[in-house]
Each structure stands twice: as C-alpha cells, then as structure tokens.
Design goal:
The chain contains five helices and nine strands; from the N terminus they run βαββαβββαβββαα. Helix 3 packs across helix 5. It has a six-stranded mixed beta sheet, sandwiched between helices. Strands 4-3-5 form a three-stranded mixed beta sheet, with no helix packed on it. Strand 1, helix 1 and strand 2 form a beta-alpha-beta unit. The mean pLDDT is 93. The protein is α+β, with helices and mostly antiparallel strands.
Length: 209
C-alpha cells in the first residue's frame, strides 16, 4: 500500500507555537484524520533541554540569554541541551510507525540516513559515529536528532545546520561536547534553505517509502 506523506513548510515559528502544532498533528495522525506529516521550519534563537539534560548543559547566565534574545524550553524528547535558530532547518516528522516499523532504533537510523543522503546531494560527506546519534563530518556534527515516540507516533525530530550562526552553540555544552559545524562553513557559501528542504522531502519519501 502506498503511504502518503503530507509536508508542511511553516517558515519561522516560535518554539511554543511549533510544540502546539506538533501536538495537534500528533492527534490527527494517531486517529487517522491526517496522513503521516513532515513539518519543516526554523526557530528563533532557542535552547531546548531534552530528558537527559543536566543543569550544567547551559553554560551562560540568564542575563546574557536575555540580552541575546534566547528562550529556553524543557522538552520530552530524548537527548540533552540543543540550540535552534535562524539558518537551521528543523524537521518534525509526525508519522505512525505501526504496524510495520515498530523499532525505535531503526527509526533513528532511518532519520540519519535521510540527512546523510541530503548532505551527499550537496557534496558534503557525513557519517554515523557508533553510540551517538545524528550526522557527523570530519569537522564536527552537522545534524542533531532527538525524538519522542508515544503509541508508535513520532514527534520532535532533527535539526540540520545550514547557514546557522555557530556562535550560539557556545552558550551550551552540545551533546557529547563535540564540535558543531554548518553546511555554510563546510561549503564556503550560503545555501538556500528551500533547496535543502526540497532534498529533505525527496530523501525522506525515499527512505520511508
């Protein structure tokens, strides 16, 4: 049976508003009112804490966060503290893994595969590192992944640094403390977000059939 993927490109959305959209979409996908859905968007400067984040994940004062217009959110996704901001494509796949894909690890590996293929489309070589999630390059991590799965419907997802201002990562200890990089740094040029989104949609449809 052919599965349908609905794609919503939402532009720049406040984190709290995006959370509400995810919740609403999750209910609609769970009940079958809506097909599997991929939300693609950007956030304003935001730090999110995952379930594994400790208090020392954010290494700057509340005063500096206010001055730099950065908001902080607690979330129910896996992982530690991460940064979201302009120039970064955030993808929230809200898809039903039952009955034939009920495997959390496979789901995370499939997400990684989508992004590794997308990066290859732009001549960026990336790879997995055993024991870690996301997509990594010789110069640092370019994709972060943190997911939540309830009743076999997925929420949260991935963040791909396209033209991201990497200075904002200095406000936190990124997952596992490894360096972060962006496509712009790797390619030496700005990359149009719409072009990257087009490839994400194509590769997502391919990997998830």
């Amino acid at each position: 049976m052919q599965r349908v993927l609905r794609v919503e490109r939402l532009g720049r959305v406040e984190y709290a508003a995006a959370l509400a959209i995810q919740k609403q979409t999750e209910r609609a996908v769970l009940t079958g009112e809506q097909p599997d859905t991929l939300l693609l968007l950007e956030h304003p400067h935001t730090l999110t804490r995952g379930r594994r984040s400790a208090n020392d994940g954010i290494i700057t004062s509340e005063k500096i966060l206010r001055e730099r217009d950065v908001t902080v959110f607690e979330t129910n996704r896996g992982g530690k503290v991460t940064y979201h901001g302009p120039g970064q494509i955030v993808g929230y796949p809200i898809i039903k893994l039952s009955p034939d894909r009920q495997d959390v690890l496979r789901y995370v590996r499939d997400l990684e595969e989508v992004l590794i293929r997308v990066l290859r489309d732009f001549h960026v070589e990336s790879f997995r590192i055993p024991g870690l999630t996301g997509a990594h390059t010789e110069r640092g991590k370019v994709v972060a992944i943190g997911v939540h799965i309830a009743r076999w419907v997925t929420t949260h997802g991935f963040a791909l640094n396209v033209n991201t201002d990497l200075n904002y990562f200095n406000l936190i200890v990124p997952c596992e403390g490894e360096p972060v990089i962006s496509m712009r740094e790797l390619l030496g040029r700005e990359v149009p977000l719409t072009e990257v989104e087009d490839r994400i949609v194509a590769r997502f449809a391919e990997v998830f059939e």
